[in-house]
Structure formats: structure tokens, C-alpha cells
């Protein structure tokens, strides 16, 4: 199954969008839109905070894929996480995220990287890799979305430190079953983070899906 291509899957769209958000932030202090709303972001933060027995905030290395304005990492920094990295393929997004982090007095590392390419820059490995909507955007690429998704997932697998690391993904375009099917060659489901449900035509569904995966042991 392929999604219909959209401008949301193009770098030009995001560059224009973040250029506008930089102007708004400098003029009004508005950090811009948080994709899927703040509740989706806070659910992930809350889930991480509940993992205190296996997760140590001081040492856990966290990578946010398609970080945008960086507000997810700001939320983690506010909770005491310190080893935080955000990547995006939009230079304007990185510019905005760095400015917001500096104004919040947080030391967050932001890097320009395109994970849809076969050989992106080396970023190291991480204990937590987070994706909120980035896999969705990759899936909406008008050109070669299947190849882009394949490259993206291969890169995510390389970014995970080991089979105990977590890949946390939130999607509004793919159901949990679809994610499981698409990821099964690289990842296995660790758990599902509950999200709001709706009922339509007698069937129950979710507005967004949040799943925690682990890398399959080699």
C-alpha cells in the first residue's frame, strides 16, 4: 500500500513552512505548530518518565527524528534528560530549533541530516529514537516513497544502540497493524502507548497510533 503523494512529503514545503515560523518566533515568540498536538507529544514524555527502572535520564541518549521546532526535546530537557539530539533535513527547522533551545537555556544538539538517503552523515547510536510524524512525511514523498521508507528504516535500525534500545513512533497515516507489517524485518513490537479512540460505523479506531519497537537481535 502506498499513500498518495503530497507537498507534505517535500523538502521545499518544510523549508517554506519553517522560514515562516522563524519569522513568527522572532516577532511574537510563537514556537509554531506541534504536529499531532501537544497531547501526542506529552503521552510519549509521560511514558518515558514511567520507565525509571530501566531508563536513566542522565545517561539515556535520545534522538528525535524530524525534530522540527524541537519542542519534544525541550519537554524532555525540562524533565531532566540531558543527552538530547535532534535531526531534520530542513536547515530552517534546525535554525528554529536551535534558537528556541537557546532561549530556554537548554543545551540540545541539533544536526542537519537526511535519513531518507542511503548514506547519511554518521550520527552515532542512541538508546531512544523518536519519530512523531516523520515516517508519515517520508511516506508522502511524491517520488520513490517506497525507496525512501526503506532507506529511512534501515538508518533507524543502525541508529539504535542495541536490541534493548527503543524506537518510538507516532503516526496518523498508518495503523499499528500496518506498522508491524512494514517493520517486522527490522523491529519487533515492545508495547503500544494508548491513544484516544473514536467509533465510526460500529468500528473503533485511533486518531493516531503510538508504538514502541525494539531492534531485532542479529
From TrEMBL:
InterPro entries: Efm4/METTL10, Methyltranfer_dom, SAM-dependent_MTases_sf
Residue span, Methyltransferase domain: 57-188
Domain of life per record: Eukaryota
Gene Ontology process terms (BP): methylation
GO cellular component, one term: cytoplasm
Pfam families: Methyltransf_31 (PF13847)
UniProt entry tagged with the keyword S-adenosyl-L-methionine: yes
The keyword Cell inner membrane belongs to this UniProt entry's keyword annotation: no
Main location: cytoplasm
Record's keyword terms, sorted: Cytoplasm, Methyltransferase, S-adenosyl-L-methionine, Transferase
Localization terms from the record: Cytoplasm
SUPFAM superfamilies registered for this protein in UniProt: S-adenosyl-L-methionine-dependent methyltransferases
Gene Ontology molecular function: protein-lysine N-methyltransferase activity
Assigned EC number: 2.1.1.-
Similarity-based family: Belongs to the class I-like SAM-binding methyltransferase superfamily. EFM4 family.
Function, as annotated: S-adenosyl-L-methionine-dependent protein-lysine N-methyltransferase that methylates elongation factor 1-alpha.
Record's protein name: Protein-lysine N-methyltransferase Dgri_GH20919
Organism: Drosophila grimshawi
Gene: Dgri\GH20919
